[in-house]
Every structure is written in C-alpha cells, then in structure tokens.
Design brief:
The chain is an all-alpha fold. Helices cover 63% and strands 0% of the residues. The chain contains six helices and no strands. Helix 5 (93-111) runs parallel beside helix 6 (129-155). It is elongated, with a radius of gyration of 25 Å. The relative contact order is 0.08.
C-alpha cells in the first residue's frame, strides 16, 4: 500500500522531472561541446549526423534547450563515431572531463606536429590529469629538442667530396 500523500507524490514527480530536464540539458551541452571541440572537428550537425549514421533532426533536438528522449543506441553511435569508447561520456561528469582531457592532449600533440598516436593497448581507465600533463610535457620536450637539432644540423657546412679528395 502506498503511504505517500498526493502532495508528496507531486513533489517526487517534480523532482524526477527536474532530474530528467537536468540530464537532457547536460547531454545537450556535452553533445554541443564535443561537436565543436573534438580534435577532428568542429563538426556541423549534418557532418556529425552522417558520421554517426543518425538523423540531423535527432542531433538538433538533442542539442536544443528542451532536449529530446535520445536512445542509448544514438548516444553510443555518436560517441563511437568520434572515437569515444567510454559510453558514459554524455552522462557522467568525470568521464566527460577525462575524455576531454585526452582530447586536449591530442590537440596539443597535433599542434606540436605529431600526426598520429598509436596505443599498444586501449585503457579502460584514462590517465590521471597529472600524468597527461607530464606525458604532454615530455613529448613537447622531445619535439623541441628534435627541432633544435635539425636547426643545428642545417647550420653546419657540408663538405661536398670532389674528385680531388680521392
């Protein structure tokens, strides 16, 4: 037997409705953010829809203030199309921050001239932020050293052997 009063029931319902609205709003913000800030982007709604094999209308509704009832299938398709293997990206603050930190690292590496990064084994857990910063710093140092070495080598005169040297 239900012992909640009609007033408590309405209050609980509003609370659920508020949570749904907050979740839709968070998904909308995260979708918009990744679309605009992805290392391979920014993407238009049409381009992301085509890439994820979902309709542009679905994505536009998902990014709207009112949101839409997205399916898990749609969220996973969008995430997968962007190389995001952590399905909670759109729903979990920590996962959202960790994946975006990885994207930030990729962008920094791209700015330093790194064209691609290959991982030996995909990790279920992201590197801690400090580790990402340290890795980025190490790679930046390697690239800076290589550039200086290249400049130094270009400044050294090259002796062309001619027939009189033999």
């Amino acid at each position: 037997m239900d012992r909640t009063s009609p007033e408590e029931s309405v209050s609980a319902e509003q609370s659920t409705d508020e949570r749904i609205h907050e979740a839709k709003s968070a998904v909308a913000k995260r979708l918009r953010y990744v679309r605009q800030h992805h290392p391979e982007g920014p993407f238009t709604l049409a381009a992301l829809a085509e890439r994820a094999r979902v309709s542009k209308r679905t994505l536009a509704q998902a990014e709207s203030a009112s949101g839409s009832n997205l399916t898990i299938e749609t969220l996973v398709k969008v995430a997968s199309s962007l190389g995001i293997t952590r399905d909670a990206y759109f729903l979990d603050d920590q996962v959202f921050r960790e994946v975006n930190a990885e994207f930030d690292t990729l962008r920094e590496l791209q700015q330093q001239g790194v064209e691609s990064v290959a991982l030996r084994k995909p990790s279920a857990a992201a590197l801690p932020s400090d580790s990402l910063k340290e890795l980025t710093g190490l790679l930046r140092g390697i690239l800076d050293s290589a550039a200086k070495a290249q400049d130094t080598l270009q400044d050294i005169p090259y002796h062309h052997p001619d027939e009189t040297d033999s």
